[in-house]
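Moderator note: this is an archived Q&A kept for reference. The question asked for a predicted structure of one protein chain; the sequence and the answer are reproduced below.
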Amino acid sequence: MAGASKATAKRATVADVTQLFRDSNAAVLTEYRGLSVAEISELRRALGAGTSYQVVKNTLSKIAAKDAGVEGLDALLTGPTAIAFVEGDPVEAAKALKTFGRDHPLLIVKGGVLEGKPLTADEIKRLADLESREVLLAKLAGAMKASLSQAVYLLNAPLSQAARLVGALEAKAQADPSVLKGGAGAPAPEAAEPTEAAEPAEAPVATASEGRSVTLTADEAVELEDGGAAPASNADATDEAPELPEAPAAEAPADEAPAESAPES
C-alpha cells in the first residue's frame, strides 16, 4: 500500500510539473543548497505571483520536462535543484533572482529555458540586465506618441504657412493697394488673342459740291486722299459751294439719229 501511494504521488507530481513547463514562458533552474526555509519563502515573495518556485526531485523533473517537450535540462538537473516557473515577464523574474542572489550568495542560477530554447546562466544574467516589459511598452508608447505628434505637426505646417502668407499679403495690400490691382511687381496681363479683322468702317467725308457730309468707304476715302487735299468738313464749308465745270455731253454716234420726242397728248 505504501509503495502504491508513493507511486501515485510521484505520478501526480510529474503531471503537475509537466503542466508547469507547458504553461510557463520560461523556467530557471537554481541550486538552493544552504538556504533556509525562511530564505526560500522570501525568494518566493520576491519573485511575485507570476512565478512559481518549486523544489522537485531531479528524476521527476527530467520526466516532466520530457513529457512537456522541453529539452536541454538534463545536464542541469544535478544536486539540490529548485525551478522557478515563470508565467509572467521573464525579465522581471531574472531581475528578482539576480537581486536576491546579490544578498544571498548561496543561491546559484544554473541555467534554464525560454520559450523552448535553452539558456545558460550568463544568458539569464544578461536577461536580468534588460528593461522590463512595462518599461519597454512605456517607451514604445512614448515613441508612437512622439511619431503621431510629429505627423500632426507636419500636416499642420503647410496650413500654418499658408495662413501666414495670406496674412502677409493682406498687410502688404493695406500698405500698397496696387499689389492687388496689378501695380508694381504685379504680373502683366496676358495679351488678348488676336481676333478676325473687322470690316473697315465707313468714314463720313464732306464733299464741297453738296456742302454736306456723305458716307464713303475706307477705300474710297483713300482714293480721294491720293487725288488731292482732303475735302472740307461741314464746319469749314461756305454757304455757296464753288461751281464745278459741267461735264461735256456725250455726242451721239453719226449712224444713229436723235431720238424723237414723244408727241404731246
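Archived answer notes: The chain has seven helices and seven strands.
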